[in-house]
Amino acid sequence: METDTPAIIFDHVSVTRSGLNILDEVNATVPKGSCTVLIGPNGAGKTTLLLALLGEVHYRGRITLSGGRGLRIGYVPQKLNLDRGMPFTVAEFLAMGVQKRPLWLGISRAAREQALALLEQVHAAHLIKRRVGTLSGGEMQRVLLALALQQKPELLVLDEPSAGVDFEGGRLFCELLDDLRRTRKFTQIMVSHDLGMVAHHATCVICLKRRVVAQGAPRDVLTGKVLQALFGMHMGLICAQDHTHAMPGTARQNKGEHHHA
Prior knowledge:
By secondary structure, the protein is α/β, with parallel strands linked by helices. The protein contains 8 helices and 9 strands. α3 crosses α4.
């Protein structure tokens, strides 16, 4: 489904905060229909690039979207700061953006049916009556994906969706995203530290360390030389010749990053 048509063009994109260059002249292209993954060490600017794309941080340069600023964008954040004591259910959480009457009057049948349909698409219909505050990381991830799908996105943006989820949960989530991307025909751009997942699921990789170190298909850019340039000498020891298999020792590099970078 991926085409040569660009969905996003980053043209000399730079971001400066407190006099520090977070992004420095980033030039990159995201192919339409692709699963494009941003990789790089802590502080490389991956999340900042997503926030620039979403218009959430000031940047210099130009970001061109296929379809212009009217493009429908869905966003799945790394985590959502919710008061776990809030009493609302998953159905009510998903209904917030679609029904006009106050939630304390209950949710309409149409809003409940739409919530159920979205949850079914992410294989989480069983969560509809659960309190949002009781959800595990993986369950919340699926609810946030359902919320993003509510926008009928042409572009889906995800900030490290596997953070806080076990390996099997992360694998299943990526397979679900692959299926949704093919059936709904959206372009996907995401941040990940799990290089095994990137090798399996990405169709395009952008290697970022404040500027673009390499970009292209996983088999072309997940090389020892590029990984060493990104992550340092220890990554140069990893054999990355066979990209059809997860690379032992590379999964969840720098998994401690939970800040905006």
